[in-house]
Design goal:
Elements: H1 3-12, H2 16-19, H3 24-31, H4 34-51, H5 60-78, H6 84-90, H7 98-117, H8 122-146, H9 158-177
Helix pairs in contact: 4-5, 5-7, 5-9, 6-7, 7-8, 8-9
Length: 178
């Protein structure tokens, strides 16, 4: 084999962090983080309030909605706080003005969270937030592959990150289509 062929194979081979299976720490980082914890807390709080007979908070759809509201509000706040620099670094290079993209996604997350709370708009808001999750997924891929962490935390591997994102997407679709 000549040197040129060996170099081509090296270039074509994915980096070790792209192919290595996620460790238990990767799964832990994906689940025990502020946004997933806010999602779980919102589901739990809404479910408990609903169990006490408050009509607007009763049922699984209300509980999922409560989780999504906290998830997206937490995400929106993160666009302005110490995570902002990491979020800007996550935006794929092909997009101009990543700072504006991060700000816009924060505004859309906040608007979507508010829309989830209003009965006339909650289904549309859930669909729009589902679309937003799909739109920002390339940033999650870049973060995992480039080891971009947030607020001093190490990057979450792609598989756990994608699974958590799929849970959020399923929750949005369940609220929208229920």
């Amino acid at each position: 084999m000549n040197q040129h062929t060996a170099e081509n194979r090296r270039e074509a081979a994915p980096a070790a962090h792209e192919t290595a299976p996620p460790t238990s720490r990767g799964w832990l980082r994906a689940v025990v983080a502020p946004v997933p914890l806010a999602f779980a807390a919102g589901i739990l709080i809404t479910g408990v309030v609903g169990a006490f007979g408050v009509p607007y908070f009763g049922g699984w759809q209300a509980a999922l909605t409560g989780g999504l509201v906290l998830l997206f509000l937490m995400g929106a706040v993160g666009r302005l706080g110490p995570q902002r620099a990491g979020l800007i670094a996550m935006v794929p290079n092909r997009f101009p003005r990543p700072d504006l993209i991060v700000a816009a996604t924060g505004i859309l997350e906040a608007a979507g969270a508010i829309g989830l709370l209003l009965p006339p708009t909650h289904r549309l808001a859930a669909l729009c937030l589902a679309a937003l999750l799909v739109a920002v997924f390339p940033a999650n891929v870049k973060a995992a592959r480039s080891s971009v962490g947030l607020a001093g935390r190490p990057a979450t591997p792609l598989v756990p990150r994608a699974v958590v994102q799929a849970v959020y997407l399923a929750a949005c679709l369940a609220v929208a289509l229920a």
